[in-house]
Amino acid sequence: MIRVFSSRLKWDSHPNPLSALLAEKRRNGTAILDLTESNPTRAGLHYPGGELLAALADPRSMRYHPDPRGLLTAREAVSEYYARRGVDVPASRILLTASTSEAYSYLFKLLADPGDEILVPRPSYPLFDYLAALESVSVRQYPLRFDGVWHIDFPALASAITPRTRAIVVVNPNNPTGSYVKRAEWERLQTFGLPILSDEVFSDFAFSPDPERIATLAGPSKVLTISMSGLSKIAGLPQMKLGWIAGGGPDHAAALEGLEWIADTFLSVSTPIQWALPRMLAAAGIVQEQIRERTRENLERLRHTFDGSACRCLATEGGWYAILEVPRIRSEEEWTLHLLARGDVLVQPGFFYDFESEAFLVLSLLTPPAIFAEGLRRILDTMSYDS
Description:
This protein has helices spanning 17-27, 49-55, 72-84, 100-111, 128-134, 154-160, 183-190, 231-234, 252-266, 271-306, 332-343, 369-386; strands spanning 33-34, 94-97, 117-122, 138-146, 150-152, 165-171, 196-199, 225-230, 243-248, 312-313, 321-325, 345-346, 348-349, 360-364.
């Protein structure tokens, strides 16, 4: 038989039990308390719509001046964003992409041949396997450990490195653990001599200051370091489709030259969003402040709700998510199905994020407060009834 499709597309498209139950409930018209909402445009936030739409109406958008690195004015706006955070990143070290997912695809093309390996953290966002497979690259995981705080397991990371390892990915802060890279960890990461790819989309959303934390790796480095971010989280605008790569450290000029060749093949970033970027970044603070207030309020409510219960809210430093450790009388999958079936509450199981052990539930702190509070009440009632 002649093979029609690439072996990259071998993923199971059948719905998992949680998705199937959710679809059934929604077909039946059941009102679901969705504690997984991560789309800021559906979270009841106020956007400066007039300013954002006006920014997209720039008449310069009617002319096409392709630049594979992105329009200089847009890259200067990103440079100013870093400057406000106390980091010097010239526009010459910045390249625009349509998203951080596209940035990963560019970087995997740049750094790895088919069959090479990229190290990624575990637990973490479950997209790396797909992004890597689409570039014919393999993923190897290194663990984050929790002993009251999250930290990188460096002996395990070192043992995961092979002759085919081409880069180490850090998510700073991690999704869903909310843990930032600390200064001592950053120094140790650089000793491996491998390029560091730092996903920093949530870095503006810390819950409290910490002098040991490094909010961005876009500053000076001893190894090739690529930082990634974009409008999706910084401005709460995932639909605007603009991200960026900021290169630093040794070989960053050669890396950006290679990325420019790759970007020139696609030229994916639209002209209107590039012209609009300075105004959108300037307006981002309005949405950021609402998100910070929302996530802090929900995190405090989560901690208060389960204080003294059989559940534990794991420490988190930032981002949009929280992790609830629940009794192991059920598996994570059983808990999520039970909560949805019994209480019409949707949460995510930890194994979606490759947690090594049971039993953890992942909740979005972006959820509207009234829904979040009622959802927590139903979870607690269910836990109390079952214990």
